[in-house]
Design brief:
With about 140 residues, the chain is of the alpha+beta class. About 20% of the residues lie in helices and about 35% in strands.
Length: about 140
């Protein structure tokens, strides 16, 4: 029996002045295409979480961020791999940053109460449940 590969992933928790969170939609031909997620991606060998998150956000959205403290961590056992994901609190480097659809299909700024209107991967839905409990939002 072969050992599963662990994939380390980072995601950004970006909140605007209206207390809304940034979510992005995966491209249709991507893994889990059409799902919504918190923006981010895979950490490359030798790369820190913060460097990977800064790079991924620039590549996907063409915006610059400041990566803050760890917000939430989870591990998920998929059929073929283990997913180790870290969500970080982040801020835009400037309020004038304009999001570009470079490697995403779409984006939204949404309130905690709106998360159930979007289809997310298991890793994000688990974190969203925790976020809702923290904000005492009922589903």
């Amino acid at each position: 029996m072969s050992q599963k590969v662990t994939i380390r992933v980072v995601a950004a928790i970006l909140k605007n002045e209206h207390n809304q969170y940034l979510i992005t939609k995966r491209l249709p031909d991507a893994h889990l295409g059409g799902f919504w997620e918190f923006p981010g991606g895979t950490v490359e060998n030798g790369e820190s979480d913060r460097a990977a998150l800064t790079r991924e956000i620039k590549e996907e959205l063409d915006i610059s961020i400041i990566v803050g403290e760890l917000f939430w961590h989870g591990k998920f056992d998929n059929k073929s791999e283990l997913l180790d994901i870290n969500f970080y609190n982040c801020d835009l480097t400037s309020p004038d940053e304009k999001i570009e659809l470079l490697e995403i299909a779409d984006y939204r700024w949404i309130a905690v109460s709106e998360f159930d209107q979007y289809k997310f991967p298991k890793s994000d839905t688990t974190m969203i449940s925790w976020l809702r409990r923290k904000h005492k939002v009922k589903y």
